[in-house]
Design a protein that fits this description.
heterodimer; A: mainly alpha; Serine Threonine Protein Phosphatase 5, Tetratricopeptide repeat; two-stranded antiparallel sheet; 19 helices; disordered N terminus; B: mainly beta; 8% helix
Chain lengths: 544, 1097
Amino acid sequence: MKAISNKSNKIKILLFLLLVFFGCTEDWLTYEKRGSQISDTFYKTDVQAFEGLMAAFDDWQSNIGFNYYYILDGLSDESYAGGGSRGDNGGILEELNEYRFTVYNTGIQGFYSWLYTCIYRANLVIDRVTPDTDNKKLDVAMSKALRAYSYFYLVNMWGDVPLVLHELSATEYDQPRTPKADVWAQIEKDFTEAIADLPTRGNLPADFANLISKGAAQSMLGKAYLFQNKFAEAADIFEQVITSGDYDLYPDYSKVLRRESEYGVESVWEVPFVTTQNYAPGFPGNESGMGVFLVFVSPRETQFYCPALPIGPTGWCFLNPHKSMWDAYIDAGDVVRRQANLLSKAEVRHLGGKLEFPLNLADTSVIGPTPYGNDGYVQMRYINWNSEGDGAFNWAQLANNGTNARMIRFADVLLMAAEANNRKSPADDAKARTYLNRVRTRVSLPDVTSSGDELFAAIKLERKLELYFEGTRYMDLQRWQGNLGENGDAYLALKDQGKSVPSGIPGEPIPQPDAGYKLNKNELLPIPTYEMQVNSAMTQNPGY
Amino acid sequence: MKLTTVLLIVCTFQIAANGYSQTKKFDLSLTDVTVKEVLKNIESQSDFRFFYNDELSEINRHVTIDQKGMLIDDLLAGLFKHTGVTFKVLDNNLIVISPEDLVQQRKVAGKVIDSESKEPLTGVTVQVEGTSLGITTDAEGKYEIDVPGAQSVLIFSFVGYVTQKIPVGTRTIIDVTLTLTTKALEEVVVIGYGVQKKSVVTGAISSIKSEDLKNSSVVRAEQVLQGKTSGVQVIQNSGAPGADLNVRIRGYGSNKSSEPIYIVDGTKVFSISTLDPNDIKDIEILKDAASAAIYGAEGANGVVLITTKGGVIGQKGQLTYEYQHSFQALAKKINVLDGNEYYNYFTEAGGLSTSVDRTFNTDWQSQIFVTSPTDKHYLSFTDGNDRGSFLLSMSYLNQDGIVKGPQDKYQRYTFMFNSEYKLNNWIKVGHNLSVTRTDLRAVSESSEYGSVISDALMCDPLTPVTYTGTLPDEVQTLLTLDKTLLKDSKGNYYGISSNINGEVGNPFIARDRMQASTQNNSIFGNVFADITPLKGLTITTRLGLTLGFSDYHLYNPVYYYNASQNNTSSSVTETMNLMTFWQWDNYLTYTRSFGKHNATLLLGFTPNEIKTKNLSGNSSPLLVDNNMFDDLSYTVANPTDNVSGARTITRKLSYFGRFNYDFAGKYLFQASLRRDGAGTDILDKSHRWGIFPAFSAGWVISQENFYPKNVVSFLKLRASWGQNGSLSNLGNYPYASLLASSMSTFFGTSAIAYPISEVALATGTMPTTLSNPSLGWETSEQTDIGLEVRAFKDKLTFSVDYYNKMTKGLITTGTPPLIAGNTATSINAGNVQNRGLEFELGYRDRAGELTYNINANLATLHNEVTYMNPNNPRLSGASVNLFTATMFEKGYPIWYFFGYKTYGINPKNGNMIYYNAAGDTTSLVTSTDGQYIGSGIPKITFGATIGLAYKGFDFRAFLQGQTGNKVMVGMIRTDRLNYNILDAFYEDRWTETNINALMPKADNSDANKWHSDMMLFNASFVKVRQLQLGYTLPKSVIGRIKASNLRVYLSVDNAFTFTKYPGMDPEVGSSAVNSIGIDRGMYPICRTVLLGGSITF
């Protein structure tokens, strides 16, 4: 209605608005997430680097029960897969134990995935930590040892595997397999670099004291040489460990896996567990007792009654001693280790208990079937000892079990050294016998006097008896299998595995005709199906 | 805030001004200027505005003036002395200048009639422009009004008719003919940052106008959208008071949220539940991409624009009061097994002993549901003069749910204050303010793991509500064990089922064991200024603000029901959330016409920010276990007590532009472009900017010269294409690799820690996920083709639209290879297509004194997932009783029902025969045989409203329905024995005497059948949502109480539902997007009988 006035005011307003239009910048849209750090700026200080290392170690700790022992013991000839009935363990373990597994086996996927997770976490430390302080040097060195040890398992179990040495970006996900030789070379390189920076046991700073010492890394490297049949190099490096004086055998064999010998003379590398976390009954966490592994493998609660044996109230019997283990101890006259490691049905009854399936557990006069997959024996190596846990009642003791996992014992080092000396060229059988007999003497067995192949056979048997249920057997069998085909150790030990599984009811084994180790297939594990789907550069192992 | 305060003060002061002409003094010293310039000068130093005819010669007379301390009357009297011109100062400081002979108060009278029927129109507002003088026409359409003089202009306005302005001049009789609005091309629609004439709109926009809203009896704003327009589906998650609703515009565009955004008066709001429907003036729904694209990164799921009511400039003060009182009751009792049937079925199944106690036959639904009242009051004031107007309203809603007792209740208080004011002829300022508080006490529902509603359906009928006589032995035993058993208000212990155990039991226990309440306080609104520095150019700046404060309170008393349902330590939980949101829109609109070319350009910019803060505390036990102690201060400190809280921030910055062009209203074109930048909590810096273009065009064929005159008076063809983004599924740094010192494990979240000795745990830190900096916007791309028709003198309106909408880049979990060593964050991998046809039809006419109108709409929907990450081709959705019940997979509708496909019942043994994955029949299926068995998404939705008016009476019927979808009965537990089931599974079950049965035999051994298509039912329905009869009292009656309008009405809502679904209600929604159509015992939508009345003064 009226004409417009006050032009200058309007111009001022326009200018103000224009300022507003362009006043906002990109900075205004940039802000960091509260309560979270981003990886780009982390791994700088000693504390941050150590936290990165702890994450890599934590990966081993949280996978020891579920993957390491469960899978490796399951694949060996030491155990039957069992439980309340067939399928009770989810079928995954039965497939592994009976050599009926396929690319779909989630246990195999879990193992594979776990190792690459450790590699990823170790890579972050190795890539991003500048080793400009003593502590950071140790963080990087230990990360290299963990990475190399992870690749050690990958290359042995799957053959050629992708060699991942840094954090992959999304465009790098399709990684082809790296030839075994290159993977081995990287393993040796990582260990060698780690050893150079690691102090010997006792000279590590307090926070690092129970982690990986020079001796541990040397033992791992020796193992890597041995598995490549580089016997001279293996013998050399084991010799350094043995002559370091840092290690010895713990006098009482029956206690080598118990809490009283933890971080003791025989420990080369342990993955620790503690009792201090106050986990709720039935829900153990990563920091206690290998997750639920001890529950999985302890005697089955509804079928086991033995007040004389101070163990927790719950167990599911997923892994049971193979009868051949019992027989092997009997044949070898190995009373000390048999008694330490196994308990037979008759012995349980002798203790006033029973290992059968009566409705009335306390009435020992009623005899029923043993649990599925159990031939009448209880393993006592990793078991839910009440005294190893902490808590007011049995369940809590089980949830807060503090038994450390003994990854490498000095006895293992001695036996590997014996094997290296026996098989290197020229052989040093005298030294081999010395190391072998050192292990035998502890368990009151007479010295072995043989040499050559006969000595080699004695060393192999000794490993079986000494390291029962410690996760080494499957890898040993595969190593000795080599190219021997039908004469190979793995084939001979596992070809009939799972064809007859004790049902628990005497005389009624459940036939699994398609079971057993197959040549040109079971030398390696399959690449998990998920990995085949998402990594287009990946190829499958033969036979799967 | 200061600006707001200032504006408020200014507005209030101006409107309240009076006696101004008696106090305002002028000092004028002007030499040889025109009278016009003198007047301008007066305007510039005062609030006076002059009203005169430019052709008046006196105005251009040159004068010289030098006066001090003059009142306006004296000043003007001197100026116009002996000129034949006179003036009059009106109440609102408007001064009318006119030739002397015309300025005199006089009466003008006349009659107002309808242009079609020539019938008189009653209740038409007749007002003198720029004054508060006004009156309404009487029953014969007649009026008589005093006007100040010949310069006066009369405004004739009537709802539904085009407003007319008529200068009085020298006439004393003015008869007026009013035309219905639909005839008018001037009808405008709100299009986002502006308005547009409906005739030249090129997008698919549905409007719900105040007329459609006027007689609605709904209590929630979302319900207003229901069934009114095609392609808009309102999914009621629950019939409970205060329960949220989901709105879907043109289908389901995501695996996650696909809610539209709501813009109220130009400012984004997070929920419209805080609005009272009475405060809504009109609603526009931007359905196609081209219309929504101006909202860019937030428009992918459609935009709902709501304009709230305000005063009307030039309309005199009005007071309106409305009261509603209603009763709601369970519309339909679901048929579950009664005592005898229950006994038969479960003894046959072997789950129940034949010697079970059959004393009681409890009908739980009759016990727990009651008829309950709702009251609503609404009061509003509006006023306006020639420069400004305001609305002030308040409402109170008190809704008592149908579950017995006070634990099912919703109260809402709203307050709204809107104003606008012309400061001068180039600045208009205004504000909208809405303050709401809600108090909600809701009962649990929709869970097969126990809730008040599902317990009422699944609890066995052999258990009594309470024990009135001696207690059974097992209950006595519990008391001797010192268990706290719950009692009713009379002091009787509630019945404890001895036939079922686990999570389901007596629904009264489910009601009393958890006492939760939620309070919400919200303030939202905006202040704005429209600046018009040049003709055609408007600059708008608007600051919108939302403040939200909510408080959740939970009290869990000690109680014992059974081994699964008990609480040994009383506890109280308090969670408080604070939210602050602001949005600052700045845009300029420039409109120009040259010849037949009309063009409008819009350019704008808007930043916004959301900040939240929450605080939560939990403590246990209470000092004394009762309601007077359920605060955190009155508990015993305990190591398990905890406090937590966090703050978040999210920001967005957008630039937008739009160009509209039409040639002679015949050839129409529009293009828009929006560029959105996301804050780092949404997307990575490298991929934060999204550009969303849109184009649309239209051709009004009926405007062409060659178009023959026929019954079809208007014919428009339009097409549009555009892209939009969706923000709703991004947030909380979804792309980032963040470090954490805890991770989720099989047993829950656990710290990353490693024991470095027997006593010391060292913390580990690692990235929780791999990063994905290239994560981008979820983008929808849509094409729309539409046709609009008006015919039979615009009595008939019709439109049809075809749309094809593809949403790309759905946010799913990434699938890196295992060698990458960590899980992935989100990636863009999935497309969904929605396409369909939408029809809207309207017809209005009058037969004698009867007017009638019919509005109907129908939409089809084809929804299909067209792409998924090949490495993760199927996403698992919701579970029913631990079995995956919905899946998201390529080639199927989103979140389709997953289960076993059945062939039929084996007549030999009554067992179910299935199809396996290969399509062969089998009696045994395994988890790999699960497959598509149906979808919860309707293929066709429709609605219709029929309105009749005769003399003072009006009647309205509203129907709504859908077809082509299924409901899955999710009230089932196969892991627990003897939970009650629907009659549908009982009546025609296999027995040895009924071997050709529809349903399998009673049997506990085969759980698979409960996860099969046996649980699916046809969910088609037609609902009579509303039947309303109203009566408007004649003016002659209400005139005596000085009222201008008085209407009373009776409404029956959700009167009837026609459906084959045997459950309570086939309209099953879920707040979880992956649970659409699963009925786990949903709070039913109630039948409501409502009495209301409204009066306007």
